[in-house]
Amino acid sequence: MKTKTSIQLSKILGVLIGFPIIATLISILLSSQPVISGIDLKSLNSFLDAYYLNYVLIISWYLLQLYIISKILKDSNWSWSDIGIALSKKKMIYSIMGYLIIAFGLLIFIEMALAKSTINIEKLNSIPSFSPKTTTARVIFVFLALVAGIVEEIVYRGFAIKSLMSHKVNKWLAVLIASIPFIFQHGMRAIDSITGNGIWVGWYFVWGIVFGVIFLFSKKLYINIIIHWLVILSAMVGILQAIK
């Protein structure tokens, strides 16, 4: 579907450069566990300790991204369908409900498996930090995955690719360009990977390309969002490696 006007290049760059920078700064802030508004993160209780507060802040940042994109679309006379969001509100609600059923079904399976098993503490400590290690963390992670899957596809596929194409950027080049800020959307994990073995940079870049190609062929984001949800949810299964 052709749009009436091109989105201002300054706004596109603001999103593709500004969003990853902010995500990285948030990642640095949270990893350093500073005092925020006079609250010592190390002294918070089990629900509001630094780990859970991280999730709350990250979810809040995703929602802010969604709001900013909606404002840019409105100011540019674009609609959500112009960037691949063509589902009605009713179908979107059904999709989210379907996701929650699958996600909590996986959560229940994991909890039942853990309840009947003995945990190897050494293996537990070796599991990457993004894999939630407690029941509360996994519940919050379900909602984080819900928001992240939707917002990252809207920002780095629908908005990024379509807005670049509106400036006559080749569609394949647009996919490539959009995949680079997608890497740094993931904060310090991507930055650390650059100075290490580069595995996460490659992981995010490849998925950025794959999601971009899927979007070009489908012209809709719902397939991307579903796959993205499943990829993120797979991190929850990592805890099963700690079972003896």
Note down, in words, how this protein is organized.
By secondary structure, this protein is an all-alpha fold. The chain is 69% helix and 2% strand. The protein has a two-stranded antiparallel ribbon.
What is the overall pLDDT average?
85
Strand sequence of the main sheet, in spatial order? Answer: 1-2
Q: What percentage of amino acids are in beta strands?
A: under 5%
Shape: globular
Tell how many strands the DSSP assignment holds: 2
**Percent helix:** 55-70%
Low-pLDDT residue spans? 34-48
Distance N terminus to C terminus? 54 Å
Kindly name the structural category: mainly alpha
Order of SSEs:
HEEHHHHHHHH
Task: Please tally the helical runs, counting DSSP H or I stretches of 4 or more residues.
Answer: 9
Would you spell out the secondary-structure blueprint of this structure?
Blueprint: H1 9-32, E1 35-36, E2 39-40, H2 50-75, H3 89-115, H4 121-126, H5 135-165, H6 171-184, H7 188-195, H8 199-218, H9 222-233
Antiparallel strand pairs: 1-2
Task: List its traits.
single chain; 244 residues; mainly alpha; two-stranded antiparallel ribbon; 9 helices
Brief write-up:
By secondary structure, this protein is mostly helical. 69% of the residues lie in helices and 2% in strands. It starts with 8 loop residues before the first helix and ends in an 11-residue tail after the last helix.
